[in-house]
Design brief:
This protein is mostly helical. It has two domains: 1-40, no CATH class; 63-91, no CATH class. It is 34% helix and 0% strand. It has two helices and no strands. It has helices at 11-21, 70-89.
């Protein structure tokens, strides 16, 4: 997460962008690594012990390959919508 703007990026992609341009990819403000970047972890990735939190450093499972792109995600949504329509009609 960028300290000044609060924007969240995948760390390696932000490091690559800042390494090439020296600026935030969205705001264009000058950034220096690691001073302007804060690591953010979700509860499921070991960032806490709340609901669903893991304290062993477990990682969040990646998305299914079909959900990794916009067309794939739209296809999954279409399938789910069709399932819901069929369920509603069969009641």
């Amino acid at each position: 997460m960028v300290r000044t703007s609060g924007l969240v990026f995948e760390r390696r992609l932000l490091e690559k962008a800042v390494g090439e341009t020296g600026t935030c990819p969205i705001t264009g403000e000058a950034l220096t690594l690691p001073d302007d970047v804060v690591a953010v972890r979700s509860a499921a990735a070991g960032g806490g012990s709340g609901p669903g939190g893991a304290s062993d450093g477990a990682h969040i499972a990646p998305r299914a390959p079909g959900a990794a792109s916009v067309p794939g995600l739209l296809g999954l949504l279409q399938v789910r919508t069709t399932e819901l329509e069929r369920e509603a009609l069969c009641r």
